[in-house]
Protein backbone atom coordinates (compact mmCIF):
# COMPACT_ATOMS: atom_id res chain seq x y z
CA UNK A 1 0.00 0.00 0.00
CA UNK A 2 1.06 3.57 -0.72
CA UNK A 3 -0.62 6.58 0.92
CA UNK A 4 -0.03 10.09 -0.43
CA UNK A 5 -1.10 13.42 1.05
CA UNK A 6 0.20 16.33 -1.03
CA UNK A 7 -0.52 20.08 -1.38
CA UNK A 8 -2.20 20.24 -4.79
CA UNK A 9 -2.93 18.62 -8.16
CA UNK A 10 0.49 19.21 -9.71
CA UNK A 11 2.27 17.48 -6.83
CA UNK A 12 -0.10 14.51 -7.01
CA UNK A 13 0.47 14.14 -10.74
CA UNK A 14 4.25 14.33 -10.29
CA UNK A 15 4.39 11.86 -7.41
CA UNK A 16 1.85 9.38 -8.76
CA UNK A 17 2.14 9.68 -12.54
CA UNK A 18 5.58 11.21 -13.12
CA UNK A 19 8.93 9.64 -13.93
CA UNK A 20 10.12 7.63 -10.96
CA UNK A 21 6.69 8.03 -9.41
CA UNK A 22 4.43 5.61 -7.58
CA UNK A 23 2.79 4.00 -10.61
CA UNK A 24 6.07 3.55 -12.46
CA UNK A 25 7.35 1.28 -9.71
CA UNK A 26 4.12 -0.22 -8.41
CA UNK A 27 3.43 -3.90 -8.84
CA UNK A 28 -0.04 -5.18 -9.82
CA UNK A 29 -2.20 -5.50 -6.73
CA UNK A 30 -0.69 -2.45 -5.04
CA UNK A 31 -3.25 -0.18 -3.36
CA UNK A 32 -2.80 3.59 -3.74
CA UNK A 33 -4.77 5.85 -1.40
CA UNK A 34 -4.44 9.55 -2.14
CA UNK A 35 -5.49 11.76 0.78
CA UNK A 36 -4.72 15.09 -0.89
CA UNK A 37 -7.36 17.77 -1.49
CA UNK A 38 -7.42 18.06 -5.27
CA UNK A 39 -9.85 18.33 -8.17
CA UNK A 40 -12.14 15.34 -8.69
CA UNK A 41 -11.01 15.02 -12.31
CA UNK A 42 -7.39 14.66 -11.17
CA UNK A 43 -8.35 11.74 -8.91
CA UNK A 44 -10.15 10.13 -11.84
CA UNK A 45 -7.06 10.64 -14.01
CA UNK A 46 -4.82 8.95 -11.45
CA UNK A 47 -7.33 6.11 -11.09
CA UNK A 48 -7.43 5.55 -14.86
CA UNK A 49 -3.63 5.31 -15.02
CA UNK A 50 -3.56 3.09 -11.95
CA UNK A 51 -5.96 0.63 -13.55
CA UNK A 52 -3.59 0.26 -16.50
CA UNK A 53 -0.93 -0.94 -14.05
CA UNK A 54 -3.25 -3.20 -12.10
CA UNK A 55 -3.13 -0.81 -9.13
CA UNK A 56 -6.23 -0.20 -7.02
CA UNK A 57 -7.04 3.40 -6.11
CA UNK A 58 -9.07 5.33 -3.53
CA UNK A 59 -9.34 9.09 -3.10
CA UNK A 60 -9.62 9.91 0.61
CA UNK A 61 -9.26 13.61 1.47
CA UNK A 62 -9.50 14.61 5.12
CA UNK A 63 -10.84 17.34 7.35
CA UNK A 64 -9.60 18.22 10.82
CA UNK A 65 -6.28 19.96 10.27
CA UNK A 66 -3.00 19.25 12.00
CA UNK A 67 -4.70 18.82 15.36
CA UNK A 68 -6.99 16.14 13.98
CA UNK A 69 -4.02 14.38 12.40
CA UNK A 70 -2.04 14.40 15.65
CA UNK A 71 -5.01 13.09 17.65
CA UNK A 72 -6.12 10.61 14.95
CA UNK A 73 -9.57 12.22 14.85
CA UNK A 74 -9.68 13.24 11.19
CA UNK A 75 -12.83 12.97 9.14
CA UNK A 76 -12.01 10.98 6.00
CA UNK A 77 -14.18 11.09 2.86
CA UNK A 78 -13.48 8.10 0.62
CA UNK A 79 -14.30 7.66 -3.06
CA UNK A 80 -13.85 4.33 -4.81
CA UNK A 81 -14.71 0.67 -4.36
CA UNK A 82 -16.38 0.13 -0.97
CA UNK A 83 -15.04 -3.41 -0.64
CA UNK A 84 -11.52 -2.03 -1.09
CA UNK A 85 -12.22 0.57 1.60
CA UNK A 86 -13.57 -2.07 3.98
CA UNK A 87 -10.49 -4.19 3.42
CA UNK A 88 -8.20 -1.32 4.47
CA UNK A 89 -10.43 0.39 7.02
CA UNK A 90 -8.10 -0.45 9.90
CA UNK A 91 -5.28 1.57 8.34
CA UNK A 92 -7.47 4.63 7.88
CA UNK A 93 -8.76 4.29 11.43
CA UNK A 94 -5.20 4.88 12.61
CA UNK A 95 -5.63 8.43 11.28
CA UNK A 96 -9.34 9.18 11.42
CA UNK A 97 -12.26 8.84 13.76
CA UNK A 98 -15.05 9.30 11.22
CA UNK A 99 -14.68 7.56 7.87
CA UNK A 100 -17.35 7.85 5.16
CA UNK A 101 -17.68 6.02 1.86
CA UNK A 102 -19.23 8.67 -0.39
CA UNK A 103 -19.31 7.06 -3.82
CA UNK A 104 -17.07 6.41 -6.81
CA UNK A 105 -13.55 7.73 -7.33
CA UNK A 106 -13.62 11.54 -7.25
CA UNK A 107 -16.57 11.78 -4.90
CA UNK A 108 -14.32 12.04 -1.86
CA UNK A 109 -12.72 15.09 -3.43
CA UNK A 110 -16.14 16.51 -4.30
CA UNK A 111 -17.35 16.30 -0.71
CA UNK A 112 -14.11 17.83 0.59
CA UNK A 113 -14.41 20.66 -1.93
CA UNK A 114 -17.94 21.46 -0.76
CA UNK A 115 -16.76 21.43 2.86
CA UNK A 116 -13.97 23.86 2.03
CA UNK A 117 -16.43 26.22 0.38
CA UNK A 118 -18.19 26.51 3.73
CA UNK A 119 -14.90 26.90 5.59
CA UNK A 120 -13.92 29.89 3.47
CA UNK A 121 -17.34 31.53 3.49
CA UNK A 122 -17.79 31.03 7.23
CA UNK A 123 -14.34 32.34 8.10
CA UNK A 124 -14.80 35.45 5.94
CA UNK A 125 -18.08 36.14 7.73
CA UNK A 126 -16.50 35.65 11.16
CA UNK A 127 -13.73 38.09 10.31
CA UNK A 128 -16.16 40.79 9.18
CA UNK A 129 -18.48 40.31 12.16
CA UNK A 130 -15.72 40.44 14.78
CA UNK A 131 -14.01 43.47 13.27
CA UNK A 132 -17.34 45.27 12.93
CA UNK A 133 -18.39 44.56 16.52
CA UNK A 134 -15.00 45.54 17.90
CA UNK A 135 -14.92 48.75 15.89
CA UNK A 136 -18.34 49.69 17.30
CA UNK A 137 -17.06 49.27 20.83
CA UNK A 138 -17.97 45.76 21.98
CA UNK A 139 -15.17 43.85 23.71
CA UNK A 140 -13.99 40.89 21.56
CA UNK A 141 -14.40 38.50 24.51
CA UNK A 142 -18.03 39.55 24.87
CA UNK A 143 -18.67 39.08 21.17
CA UNK A 144 -17.18 35.60 21.23
CA UNK A 145 -19.02 34.53 24.38
CA UNK A 146 -22.43 35.68 23.15
CA UNK A 147 -22.05 34.41 19.57
CA UNK A 148 -21.05 30.99 20.91
CA UNK A 149 -24.37 30.86 22.78
CA UNK A 150 -26.36 32.18 19.82
CA UNK A 151 -27.34 31.15 16.32
CA UNK A 152 -24.14 32.59 14.82
CA UNK A 153 -21.99 29.93 16.44
CA UNK A 154 -19.94 27.52 14.31
CA UNK A 155 -17.04 25.10 14.42
CA UNK A 156 -14.89 27.70 12.68
CA UNK A 157 -15.66 30.30 15.34
CA UNK A 158 -14.56 27.92 18.09
CA UNK A 159 -11.46 26.67 16.31
CA UNK A 160 -10.13 30.00 15.03
CA UNK A 161 -11.09 32.75 17.49
CA UNK A 162 -9.53 31.48 20.76
CA UNK A 163 -6.63 29.61 19.18
CA UNK A 164 -5.50 32.11 16.56
CA UNK A 165 -7.35 35.42 16.38
CA UNK A 166 -7.40 36.29 20.09
CA UNK A 167 -3.70 35.45 20.48
CA UNK A 168 -2.64 37.05 17.21
CA UNK A 169 -0.43 34.02 16.62
CA UNK A 170 -1.09 32.93 13.05
CA UNK A 171 2.11 30.91 12.62
CA UNK A 172 1.16 28.02 14.92
CA UNK A 173 0.10 24.78 13.18
CA UNK A 174 -3.20 25.22 11.41
CA UNK A 175 -4.43 25.35 7.81
CA UNK A 176 -2.57 27.71 5.50
CA UNK A 177 -4.14 30.53 3.49
CA UNK A 178 -2.62 29.15 0.28
CA UNK A 179 -4.23 25.74 0.82
CA UNK A 180 -7.71 27.15 1.43
CA UNK A 181 -7.33 29.49 -1.54
CA UNK A 182 -6.43 26.46 -3.66
CA UNK A 183 -9.51 24.57 -2.44
CA UNK A 184 -11.83 27.50 -3.14
CA UNK A 185 -10.29 27.81 -6.59
CA UNK A 186 -11.08 24.16 -7.29
CA UNK A 187 -14.70 24.81 -6.37
CA UNK A 188 -14.88 27.76 -8.73
CA UNK A 189 -13.32 25.75 -11.55
CA UNK A 190 -15.85 22.95 -11.06
CA UNK A 191 -18.68 25.48 -10.91
CA UNK A 192 -17.51 27.01 -14.19
CA UNK A 193 -17.70 23.64 -15.93
CA UNK A 194 -21.09 22.87 -14.36
CA UNK A 195 -22.47 26.39 -14.95
CA UNK A 196 -23.27 26.92 -11.26
CA UNK A 197 -23.03 30.50 -9.92
CA UNK A 198 -21.10 30.60 -6.62
CA UNK A 199 -21.36 34.19 -5.39
CA UNK A 200 -20.23 33.67 -1.79
CA UNK A 201 -17.42 31.27 -2.72
CA UNK A 202 -16.11 33.79 -5.24
CA UNK A 203 -16.06 36.51 -2.57
CA UNK A 204 -14.26 34.24 -0.11
CA UNK A 205 -11.72 33.36 -2.80
CA UNK A 206 -10.89 37.05 -3.16
CA UNK A 207 -10.32 37.35 0.61
CA UNK A 208 -7.70 34.65 0.57
CA UNK A 209 -6.20 35.75 -2.74
CA UNK A 210 -5.56 39.17 -1.21
CA UNK A 211 -3.93 37.52 1.81
CA UNK A 212 -1.67 35.51 -0.48
CA UNK A 213 -0.78 38.67 -2.41
CA UNK A 214 0.11 40.36 0.90
CA UNK A 215 2.63 37.61 1.66
CA UNK A 216 0.46 35.79 4.22
CA UNK A 217 -0.02 32.58 2.26
CA UNK A 218 1.90 30.30 4.61
CA UNK A 219 0.14 31.52 7.75
CA UNK A 220 -3.06 30.08 9.19
CA UNK A 221 -6.14 31.01 7.17
CA UNK A 222 -7.54 33.12 10.03
CA UNK A 223 -4.75 35.66 9.40
CA UNK A 224 -7.10 37.28 6.85
CA UNK A 225 -8.54 39.20 9.80
CA UNK A 226 -5.34 41.30 9.91
CA UNK A 227 -6.19 42.83 6.54
CA UNK A 228 -9.61 44.07 7.67
CA UNK A 229 -8.23 45.11 11.07
CA UNK A 230 -5.79 47.44 9.32
CA UNK A 231 -8.57 48.92 7.24
CA UNK A 232 -10.85 49.44 10.27
CA UNK A 233 -8.10 50.56 12.61
CA UNK A 234 -8.88 48.00 15.34
CA UNK A 235 -7.52 44.70 16.60
CA UNK A 236 -9.65 41.76 17.67
CA UNK A 237 -7.56 40.38 20.53
CA UNK A 238 -8.56 38.94 23.86
CA UNK A 239 -8.75 35.85 26.00
CA UNK A 240 -11.51 33.32 25.68
CA UNK A 241 -13.11 32.23 28.94
Which characteristics define this entry?
241 residues; mainly alpha; Rossmann fold; N-(1-d-carboxylethyl)-l-norvaline Dehydrogenase, domain 2; 2 domains; three-stranded parallel beta sheet; three-stranded mixed beta sheet; 6 strands
% residues in beta strands: 5-15%
Can you give the helix content as a percent range? Answer: 55-70%
Instruction: Quote the CATH topology of the largest domain.
Output: N-(1-d-carboxylethyl)-l-norvaline Dehydrogenase, domain 2
Class per helix and strand makeup? mainly alpha
Model description:
By secondary structure, the protein is mainly alpha-helical. The chain has two domains: 103 residues, Rossmann fold (3-Layer(aba) Sandwich); 123 residues, N-(1-d-carboxylethyl)-l-norvaline Dehydrogenase, domain 2 (Orthogonal Bundle). 56% of the residues lie in helices and 11% in strands. It is built from twelve helices and six strands. The strands form two sheets. The chain has a three-stranded parallel β-sheet with strand order 1-2-3. Strands 4-5-6 form a three-stranded mixed β-sheet. Helix 3 links the parallel strand 2 and strand 3. Helix 7 crosses helix 11 and helix 7 packs parallel to helix 12. The chain is elongated. The N and C termini lie far apart (45 Å).
Task: Provide a short characterization of the protein structure.
The chain has 241 residues and is mainly α.
Note the topology.
Blueprint: E1 2-4, H1 9-17, H2 22-25, E2 31-34, H3 40-52, E3 56-59, E4 62-63, H4 65-71, E5 74-79, H5 82-87, H6 89-93, E6 96-103, H7 107-135, H8 140-148, H9 155-165, H10 177-194, H11 199-213, H12 224-232
Parallel strand pairs: 1-2, 2-3, 5-6
Antiparallel strand pairs: 4-5
Helix pairs in contact: 7-10, 7-11, 7-12, 10-11
Amino acid sequence: MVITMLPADDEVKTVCLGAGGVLEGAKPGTVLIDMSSIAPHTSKQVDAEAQKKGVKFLDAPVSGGTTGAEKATLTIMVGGDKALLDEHMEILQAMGKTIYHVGDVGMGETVKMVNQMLVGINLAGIVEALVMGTKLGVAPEVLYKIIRASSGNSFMLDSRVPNFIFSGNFTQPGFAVDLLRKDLGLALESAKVSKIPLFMTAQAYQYFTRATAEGLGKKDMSVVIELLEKTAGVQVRGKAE
